[in-house]
Amino acid sequence: MKGQDIHFSQFTRTEFLLNPAYTGAFRGNFRATTNWKDQWRSINNTFRTYASSAEFSFGKGRPRHPTYYAVGFYAAKDVSGDVELGTTSLGLSFSSLFQISRNQRLCFGVQGGYAKSGINASTMQWGSQYVGINFDPSLYDGDGIEYLPQQYWDVSTGIAYWYHKNDNERANRAPQDAKIGFAVYHLNRPENAFVISQNDRLPFRTVFQASALFETPIDYLYWFPNITAQFQGPQHEIVLGATAKYILMSGSKMTGFGTEMAVAAGLNMRINNVFDAIIPQIYLDVKGFSIGLSYDINMSGLNIASSYRGGFELSLRFTNPDGYTHKNPYRRAVTI
User: Fold this and answer.
1) How far is CA 27 from CA 163, 179, 234, 265, 335, in A?
2) Which CA distances in Å does 120 have to 49, 86, 87, 116?
3) 7, 286 in Cβ contact below 8 A?
4) How many domains does the structure of the chain reveal?
5) Which positions ≥6 away from 110 have C-beta within 8 Å?
6) Phi first, then psi: what are they for 268, rounded to 5°?
7) What percent of the chain has pLDDT over 90?
């Protein structure tokens, strides 16, 4: 019963779970994402997780005020087991992205949310409800234990460094895009207990994340190493690996018009107290849309029951890019 926050294997599609400072830290001014994960379905009704998020940046295109801002919204729900143990959460995030050089920004973010967690006690079955081998739901159950949904407000914050290559005069070894961030979730330690007599509080969840997109000697081929480490109470999770991305069709860098198509594939590993899973994944980008598919191959001792079948995950993302004015292609114009 040592719980943990929800998580996705496609961590780059759930930035609101990684760091509030990542809100708006992307090339574009609007981004919307939806996620679905079904983990360990081969065992029973285990973890089913859903999430949607949206981000909007504003204040760009001001030469005298290079700092810009972003707001984000997220909604998430997870359900597990026959008693439907789960949490539904809604929240808002806000970030400030300060320019420290042409290609570098320091980002600060805060996030506030509301959550409701609980179980469906009506689906429980107790030994006292059996007469021999016959189950009678009308009999006394639960030894007088009363379960109530738990509602709480949540506060989180984070800081991040974001490098983004904006010109062609940088060194070739410099990444096209790189982020490193640290965040703390549940700063207010909200109370979270299903039984009235208990007084449990949600432990801090600290997150360290780093990733970068590098060019390779092969034209239009990039690679994306990454690492994410999360710690919460007695739980910890480390995900690391790399993805290769190939540009099949590039849009016009001068006008912002044209079709861009890319495919990416790679492999991540998840480690907690054991070597938990290998995660192959593939992404397809067409214009502003991107679809991601991944599968957790269970490698821990649980594979005796799971037969190495971990979980399928699907994501869909739309990004509206920053546009360029037609008359002056070297000057960015904010579009939406």
Assistant:
1) 11, 13, 37, 21, 12
2) 17, 9, 12, 13
3) no
4) 1
5) 20, 93, 94, 95, 155, 156, 157
6) -115, 160
7) 43
Question: Per residue in 9-43, pLDDT tens?
Answer: 898 899 999 999 999 999 888 999 999 998 766 66
Residue 303 in domain: yes
Least confident of 32-46, 159-173, 200-214: 159-173
What burial letters (b/e) apply to 144-164, b meaning 16+ CB within 10 Å? eeebeebebebbbbbbbbbbb
Q: What is the pLDDT of residues 52-110, one digit of tens each?
A: 999 999 888 776 778 899 999 999 998 887 788 888 999 999 999 999 988 899 999 99
pTM of the predicted protein model: 0.83
Q: What is the CATH number of the domain that holds 72?
A: 2.40.160.40
pLDDT at 325 over 80: no
As given in the structure block, the two tokens for residue 301 are 């001792």
Distance of CA 251 to CAs 169, 175, 217, 288, Å?
A: 20, 20, 21, 11
Task: Say how far apart CA 316 and CA 270 lie, in whole Å.
Answer: 22
**Residue 330: C-alpha distances to residues 133, 163, 256, 324, 333 (Å):** 78, 20, 11, 7, 10
Those residues whose C-beta lies under 8 Å from the C-beta of residue 34, and which sit 6 or more positions away, are 51, 52, 315, 316, 317
* Residue at 254 is within a domain: yes
Query: Residues with Cβ < 8 Å from 177, sequence gap 6 or more?
Result: 27, 163, 164, 165, 212, 213
Whether 27 is in a domain gets the answer yes
CA proximity to 53, closest of 20, 27, 79, 84: 20
Q: Is 4 within a domain?
A: no
C-alpha of 71 from chain center: 16
H or E, element range at 305: helix 303-306
User: What's the CA gap between 164 and 173, in Å, rounded?
Assistant: 13
Question: Which residue(s) pair with 149 in the sheet?
Answer: none
Kindly write down the DSSP assignment for every residue of 228-254, as one continuous string: EEEEETTEEEEEEEEEEEEEEE---TT
Range of the domain at 49: 11-333
CA dihedral 76, 82, 83, 87 (to 10 degrees): -10
